[in-house]
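Supplementary Methods S3. Complex input for the 5'-O-[(L-methionyl)-sulphamoyl]adenosine-bound model.
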Amino acid sequence: MGKFFITTPVYYVNDVPHLGHAYTTIAADTLSRYRRLLGDEVFFLTGTDEHGSKILQAARQKNISPQKLADEMTARFKNLWEKLSISYSDFIRTTDQKHIKVVQNVFSRLHEKGDIYKGKYSGWYCVPCESFWLESQLKDKKFCPECKRETVKLEEDSYFFSLSKYQKPLLDYYNENPDFVLPSTRKNEVVEFVKRGLRDISVTRLNLEWGIPCPVDEQHSIYVWVDALINYISALGYSLEEERFFTFWPADVHLVGKDILKFHAIIWPALLMAIGIKLPGMVFAHGWWMIKGEKMSKSRKNVVEPEWIIDRFGSDYLRYFLLREVPFGEDGNFSPALFVKRVNSDLANDLGNLLNRTLTLVVKHFQAKVPRPGKINAQDDELKGKIDSLPDNLQNFMDRLSFSQAFDSIWEVVRGANLYLDRCAPWRLVKKGETERMGSVLYNVLEIIRILTVVLFPFIPRGAEKMWKQLGMEDILSEQKLKDAVKWGKLPFALEVKKPEPVFPRIKEEDFYEVERET
Ligand code: MSP
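Predicted complex, serialized as structure tokens:
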């Protein structure tokens, strides 16, 4: 049994969670669940990023303290994660005392080592991105090159981290670890950026009241990005509980959006090199969800609220759509039409019908008891063959975070089973009095459904639980291990199945618009 440590970014608490946040977290949850299915001990970390000017400003606008804003928003995030069946192991808040202590320890270590020195910062700052920019980098001399919003001029004493020192070690590391940054197109961008040369970065802000106090100079607080990145090690107790820390560190996967890749693929590994601990296995940058071609964001007022969708259509439909519709790593467009088409065709038609028509026949012709399988023929063998290759296919795609291809390999089995059912036509067998053959056919399809349910659990946990119940299975679904579950014949015959109830009902595009008008 291996260990698997996966993280999401810590999310800013200036506003309520949106689809982009849900996307990263669903992906991390699916990978975590998949790894548990393989038998790994998983540590899945998520949380909130609560310091800095951005949060302070948002709190001031609302006339509340930043801590109160953080408390309220953290509750919103946790609530959404529950609705989405997110199985995190720990939820870190950057205002946790333990985190604050670790951040200060790291800062002191870097300072003692000579990697942090005092200087003067002169440049521009983008509050929404919490990023420093040089005048030459600005758009039209004023605007953030990243988010295009107005920047503010900063001229202050500051402590700097000697990032430039790590240019060569970073380039060597990318070279020796080709899968450290994925997808590879993004990795190439990072490498090109680092090759152009790295400047030392400012790591403190002067007199910023909402930040972690700098341990070597009380007038300064620690730059929010340094504070935030350290969550990945503070949650494991770095510098406080070494044993726990080394059980899970290094992280296997840091999941991030493409907009924050440089922080994770350049600054973070350099900080880790500087304090002398191992680097994470992989930083994977996914794309953005767009609305009519624009990045979804609060300031653009084009946000689709995940709660809105879940309350109407359920969390599985959202999880399925986000991971299935667009290859992970690429940008995607969210539209009600695409959403409805995708879930209706794959979940309601392919998967839902397979379950429904099989159970209906078992209830009607076998008193709702799993029939005893008879002799196996070539058609049955072909169906079983599809299961044989499934674990390896899945592993191959999941290792590369290729969720959409993982779904393709699962749907090959779903479609194969539907086709098998059509060809064997058990409804005709009953008319011909071939009850034994009919029982075999239904057993085989039920057995495929059992295996599919186990395999689908990481992706659509609620629907899978319902399928499991309808099959009448008594074992605990979340405790199943892939290696055992794919063994053919584990479905006990004579097990009592339930009368089918639609697990994946069809939805209509009007459902989107009708409710939209009401809200
Ligand atoms: N607090 C920082 C992360 C610190 S991690 C040490 C932050 N927070 S965030 O709340 O603004 O964004 C978190 C994540 O949400 C990022 O990975 C970002 O890419 C993702 N998304 C935000 N909008 C998005 C979309 N429209 N689509 C997909 N994901 C996007 O950055």
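The domain at 336-485 is CATH 1.10.730.10 (Isoleucyl-tRNA Synthetase; Domain 1). The chain has a mean pLDDT of 94.
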